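pinning this so it doesn't scroll away 📌
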Amino acid sequence: MATTVTVAEKKHFLRWFLANYQLQSREAEMLVRYMMTRENVLRRVHFVDNFRHLPRVMVVSTTCVQVAPFRYYRRNKPVSTDVEQAFLDLYQHPDEDVYVGLFFKERATSAEYASVLEETTSAELEPAVKELISLQAEWMIDLSLRNFRREELMQAVDEALDGGDRQAFIDASRALIEFDQTQALATAN
């Protein structure tokens, strides 16, 4: 986590949040109250806006927004709407971080919410996601280099045509054809 929010700050925020908003799910409210009263759990709670690819995520929404009341995501498990299942998971694994996304009307402008928001870092991404991002970056670099090389070869063909140099045109065309064939074979494999 780039920013560290204390347990006291999280507790203060949750008190404010529950005093000002009504959750769509009564069971979810009970779960939030449970988290608020357990320091060992609250220490592992992180309020985040971007929770994609995080290992354990709880999404809770209030009555003032049109978002699903409660969702619980656990790595390699189906999405659950069962608050009791989330509670049991929190209870059984108090040493694991849980990332909480809250949806309420003034979320984007709430200073209280902003004070407890934490940024996720790439270190928290699953290893498979990091590997995928790395592979995509390599692929994009390779694609850019190939496109650049092909543009160079096409420019050589154009320059030979413009200059009326038959031999340069044949050489540049042959190089372009060989390059395209090599790329076609690489793509086929």
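📌 and the second one:
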Amino acid sequence: MAISVPSTRQSMIDVLKTSGTYLSLHTADPTTTGGSEVSGGSPAYGRKQTTWTSGTTGTLSGTEVTFDCPAATVTHVGLWSAASGGTFIAGQALSSSIVLGAQGQVKITPSGLQT
């Protein structure tokens, strides 16, 4: 069911803003556990913190983050409560996979929409 009241949609999406601010990269669907998270590399991969900005009609925008990433095919991004360990909040497939044949950087600008 679509939520017709804009302020209700915004309240629902804002739960993500207070639940998690750390993004992760994944080489497969992280399912409900945050599995398949990228690791390794030099400089080493690590989760990155975004700063969320609320919209008014069910939108959420995050600041761009840049990950150091080893050679990998990145297919998903995840949301966590902490830079390491923590609680896995959600995962989302990227619109297209990012293929790195060697160590490089991946830039992600997160956003959310509650309908």
